[in-house]
């Protein structure tokens, strides 16, 4: 069927009387295959474990008694998206949906390597308003380093996708986003996840572009932590502030992020640390944390480039409350070499070293060499 006919049919659902004057219809995404050779200091996680797909702080402490060196082949990061842009009765309307195959454990490597698609983004924007699931407004994905690892600098950046209502006016963005509270039990134990409460997370962000081409963002997060179940009933407030930037240096660039907060929890380092811990009376005490990264990308010529990245995160745990088995510090470093013989195709190799430390000084280390081939659709 003709693409324009399909797009017009979708847009007609917006209003039976709407007139689409200008429609742009796009398929996108990429195909990416990774080969990862990993060395876990304490023994490798099982096949299909999330740490075998990409670096997730807190998952590399390992399985004692298991082999330390493993090799993984995957094409799970490959993704597909669909987008429409239209002028409907004088209003700019965009719809976007994207799927990939990461994080699922429903497949295996024995025969078919089949994995279910997962939803990454699904939103509609209408003039200045956006409604749906996409990157949290607290995060600036355009400032992420160009690393082969799926996230890259995972502990140093806010990284969340969730449903939200966002308003944009020039460089200013204001959003109400999904609330979700993660709590450490008194003296430690399995994470408590609470979706109770009716107060959404609130984010404000300002984007600035200078005449030199540098881009900066400043973002603030305010959230109510809520825990209400058969055993606990308490609320607390958390906040975060984050500054990111992309600074041109001739043909090269520097990307960075710095984030600090109290009770940020899942917003930082892929929930390496929870937002709060329970005290002896069942009340929540927020956990403060700081994280950041810096990445320098150098273009050797128009086809070859390299990035070197350093990333870190530290939480201020009260061991009397959290116990000494919880995560406290995470650091990683990356260096890569990427080659694009044609613009859509990139072939590269990357070395990564990561260290995670608990309050009791138990450590997990990961060394990984990653080879990737990526073709942008």
Automatic annotation (TrEMBL):
Q: Which organism is it from?
A: Shewanella maritima
Q: Which residues form the signal peptide?
A: 1-20
Q: What is this protein called?
A: Porin
| Keyword terms | Signal
Q: Which Pfam families match?
A: DcaP
From which domain of life does this come? Bacteria
